[in-house]
Structure formats: C-alpha cells, structure tokens
Amino acid sequence: MTDAIVSTTSGAVRGELTADGVARFRGIPYAAAPEGELRFAEAVPAPPWEDVRDARRPGPTAPQRHRDLPGFDLDPIVGPGWRPGPEYLTADVWTPDPGAAGLPVLVFVHGGAFIGGTGSASVYDGTSFARAGAVLVTVQYRLGIDGFLPLEGGVTNLALRDQIAALKWVRENIEAFGGDPENITLFGESSGAVSVACLLGSPLATGLFRRAIVQSGHPDMVRGVVEAKRLARVIADELHVEATAEAFRKVSTEQLLDAQDAVLRPGGAPDLRDALGYDRGYGLSPFLPMVGDDVLPQHPGKAIKAGAGAAVDLIVGSCREEMRLYLVPTGVLEAVSDDQAVASLAVSHPDPAGVLHRYGLGGERVAGEVLVDALTDLVFRDSVRDLAENHAGRTFRYEFEWRSPLLDGRMGACHGLELPFVFDSLDVLSGPRGLLGEDAPRRLAHDLNGAWYRFATTGSPGWLEYTGEDTTFHAGATY
C-alpha cells in the first residue's frame, strides 16, 4: 500500500491506497471542533492547517456510551463507542481515483438512535462503492444532548445543522477526490434515515443533494417545541443547572453523558407524548429533531407532501420485521404478557389496546409477536409508506425480507439487517456471533450494493417506480 494526498479547503490530507486499489481517507474535519464557545453553537468551517494532515486512521467519535444487545456483536454497526477527542465533526472518504472527475457521490449518515454510532464503523466500509466507480463519504455529527437539546441561548437541531455543514463541505471539496458535486446522493439508516428525511423537507438543505435514500426511517419521528423543552428541563434538573447553553457549557462531557443515561433508563425520561397522545420516538430515544426553527419551520412530512424535495429522486424502505432487533435479544418477545404489551405501548400511543387487538392480541397469537408486528408498522412501515406516497418526485420503495439465522432464526428480517448488504461488507457481521450467521447470500449483497450505485449514477435502482403496494420491491425474498 502507498499514500494518497488530496488538497481540501482547510489543507492537504494524506490517505492510503488499500489492497483493493481504493484510496481511503479517515477523520477529515468538515467543521471546527465543537468545544468552548462553539459548544451548543452552529458549526463553523474547520481552521486551516499547514502540513499534510494524516488521514489514515479513524478519528475521534462523538461523545457517547457504548451499547450492545445480548447474544451477538453489534460493534460493526454501532462502532466501538466514544473515541475521545475534540475534532469529531469529520468525514471519511473512499474513492477509486482522486485524479478522476465526475464520479457519482454517496454521502452516508449513520444511525444509532441519535445517541450513538459513528460513520467509521466497519460495516460502512466504502470499498465496494468505490470499486464500482463512486465516491463514498460517511459523516459524523453531534449526538444526544449536544446534538438535539434546545437550550436557551443555544442553537436548535445542531445535529441536522452539522449534516448540512458536512454536505456543504462535500460540495466544496469532493472534486478533489474525483467526485461530481452536482451528483450527490444522501442516504442514511435508522436515525440517520430520519435525518435524511428531515433534510428532504428542510429549506436549509435545498439544492445540497440530488438524490436520497431513506433506510428504515421517515420524517414523522420528530418532536414539537413543547416536548423538546420538557426534556431539556428534566436534564437540566438532573445536572442542577439552568437549561441554558451557557450553563451546559460549564458541565463536563462525562457529566452530560451521566445525565443522558439517567433519562435513558426505564422511567427516567419525562412524558414526551404530544398533544395527540403520541411519543414519536416510541421509547427508542428521547432525542429527536425538533420542529419549529429555521431548519424545520414546519413538520418535514407536511413539507414533503406540499412539494419539498420534489426535485430529489428518492428510495425509501424498511425491513420486514424491524422490531425483532429490540424485542428478541432482550427476551421481551417470549416474556411479555398481554397486559404488559398494552402497558408498554401506552407510554407512546393513545389507544394501545385497540391497536394491539387489531394485530391479534387476546387471541391465539403470542403477545410478543403481536407487539413486534404492531411496533414494526407504527415505528417504521406506516410512515415509510406515507413518505413514498407523499413525495412528489420520482420514488422507489423496497422492503428487505431476508431473515437472519441468528438465535435459531428468531431475529428475522430485523432492523439494520440490510446494512451489510447495502455496503457489500458481509464479512464483518458474519460468524457465530454475527447478525448474518455463517452463510449470508453474497449475491444479494452484490445486487443491493449495485442497486444503490445505479441509483446514485442514473436515478433508478432498476426497479419499478412506486405507485402503490404492488410496486414495492421485495429485496432478499428469493435468496
């Protein structure tokens, strides 16, 4: 292997040429470190450097606590946790040739319930995209309290603003990596997909990307100002400070993470239901984008229905059994009773019993299976369908149906399972503790990675455009 040097707007960076012939750059700052007065403030461009910056190793990650699920290894998706360091607003780039021109660009926003994850996690390896002829960029952004808490004197929706700053950096710099700044596909999964859907409806992101892919996310997972400020007050009380940016800047990162953990514990968060009785996070995370500022002046779903993002080609989809990721490893699926299923949904939905009975609760079905199906629809599929139907531009919809063999097949087509197929990075999630088991279909990875590449290149993944349920592409159903 040898080095590759590219000049960016802040200075030159040194990447490495991998054994696959791909040039890889890690931890390139797209914005200044969010510390001191820049904490809880909008991102500003990274300061220049004089010498060639080493970009051959992953950089710091956003502050977070490492989380896992029993029974298998999630690190390839969520990453190793917090790698401390102030400069974590960074991008990783894979390119087949920095000297090329006009290559399609894909920019990926990682998931992690808005409280964890990193763009440098091993499953997001961009080698397959680069070998196909595209430039792949993964970005990191502020999480949890730093990224989503509205504080007096601070700036709202900082995580989304970080992503907008990253997109501007890509447009300004991607030609140096061989990419076409006028052909950018923004894609993300889980909370990253929610972010992409929000940006699709944001006036501040207009014109920054040409295409979008929303994997297991949608624009409905947002909060109103009242609920978001309620969360801010509870966290401020936990820290014994005022809910202001000035006060929070004086609190250490470790203390913020402790306070964040306090609201993540069962019963720790305030009532985050809106005026209609819904908690739009469905208990998966108290931290969500907030409607009511210049990033999201109106609900992004309503903005999209009114025509926002109509010029952007869109793929949107979900996994067939999303909630198995959350309910199977924890043992909830087998252990939950009918009454407990109703109680668990009651904290997020105004009619929990009615919903669950429509899915078969009280009959012969196991309560846990009913809960999986109901929550998969409520949290993911229903709003994915709505996004596909409401988007005014060219739209393609998929459902990922290949089922994991892990835990005797009980994981099914769970949340996140499509990721190693999209990136064609099966090896990092294979093996006895891997989500894919021992013999995942490589042809499916080749096909799905190729569909994403075709979409980024031509605007079509090779499926029928979505016009209703019968034009949903069923990925993995025949493998």
From TrEMBL:
Its EC number is 3.1.1.-. Pfam families: COesterase. Residues 3-462 form the Carboxylesterase type B domain. The keyword Hydrolase applies. The keyword Glycoprotein does not apply. It is an enzyme of class 3 (hydrolase). Keywords: Hydrolase. Residues 49-70 are annotated as: Disordered. Belongs to the type-B carboxylesterase/lipase family. Belongs to the 'GDXG' lipolytic enzyme family. This is Carboxylic ester hydrolase. It comes from Amycolatopsis heterodermiae.
